[in-house]
Amino acid sequence: MRRAALVAPLRTPVGAFGGALRSVRAHDLAAAVIRAVVARSGLDPARIDDVAFAQSYANSEAPCIGRWAALHADLPIEVPGFQTDRRCGGGLQAVVTAAMMVQTGAADVVVAGGVESMSNIEHYTTAARWGSGSGNLALYDRLDRGRERSQPEWRFGPISGMIETAENVARRYGITREAADAFAVRSHRRAARARSEGRFAEEIVSVPAPRRRGDPVVVDADEGIRADSTPEILARLRAILPDGTVTAGNSSQQNDAAAACLVVAEDRLDELGLEPIGFLRGWAAAGCDPATMGLGPVPAVAKLFARTGIGFDDLDLIEVNEAFACQVLGVLAGWGLTEAEVSDRLNVNGSAISLGHPIGATGVRILVTALHELRRRAGKLALATMCIGGGQGMAALIEAA
Questions:
Q1: CA distance 125 to 326
Q2: pLDDT tens per residue, range 103-149
Q3: Within 13 A of 341's CA, how many CA atoms are on the CB side?
Q4: What does the pLDDT look like over 67-111, one tens digit per residue?
Q5: Where is the active site (predicted)?
Q6: 306 in helix, strand or coil?
Q7: Is residue 369 within 8 Å of 201, Cβ to Cβ?
Q8: What is the pTM of this model?
Q9: Which one, of 361, 386, 265, lies nearest residue 33 by Cα?
Q10: Which residues are catalytic?
């Protein structure tokens, strides 16, 4: 079976909720990063066999985002496209699906990525088409509604949202508010240092953001990093649930961004004149209790290690998406690790608490950053993991070229 090479991994800056990228729609973000990946690689766009793109909060403004963005990026009309959705793992799933296409010979070159514009996610009603009879129509916030309805209530009972699942993890492992805040501060400090040292320069492509008046503003840096974050500042924030651990300061952000790469059959690299930065070595997905969805990486990594024979000692980098600080600490506990044991390899450039969590794009954003960091430190293997609302986990093993 052919190896799936990863080529020209890039991402846009991660915009804050309602921030600099608010005026840039999801399909514009996706098209921008697709154009950049093709340009950076030097590939003839006619050689692209398909476009796999994730979007968790899809709508009819740009249906089937993979195809829509491919056309918007001015790829040849013969290039098809499709959409994936595994919620927080959707972007990583797009890369995995593209890799399977390449490995089985169904394609030679696939653009794989993910996008989310959370600033532009709409409110909606389910009662307008046929009328509500009388009274008012309810408008749902798609962001909140998706979190509330991430599992069937008849089977698992009511779960108010992702914050409740994080608190369940904190209680299971006795994770304190102080420990969660300390981890969040570390995330911001690491991201701030990575930015100041120029570590993101090779992976970020700037995006012009339209304004009502005047020329577009060029956005070229992540907005959510708070270099001045301290435990004392975070301690002042109110817990979201009574007597809880989770606050706005030790949780992931809501964001706007896109990320993508080429997934290419290894035996086509020379012919196409492409240089890989890495390979997808293996992957796994697993289910878990929706009430503790944050622990999804634990069974997913167990599956992945069983299939590949790899263990934590073999890894140069470990990425655990920071949905919540207490959730990351819970995953480490589930793996039988302490933060101190893996601190020099874990989320070394920050993650969702500091860089943000644009849901459909996050898995690819993590992949992009990990690939560039592996090259920077001449490492060999990186582990990328995601917890997923509704009770899933996903893990992928990335090998440097």
A1: 34
A2: 999 999 999 999 999 999 999 999 888 877 778 888 999 999 999 89
A3: 10
A4: 999 999 999 999 999 999 999 999 999 999 999 999 999 999 999
A5: 88, 357, 387
A6: helix
A7: no
A8: 0.97
A9: 361
A10: 88, 357, 387
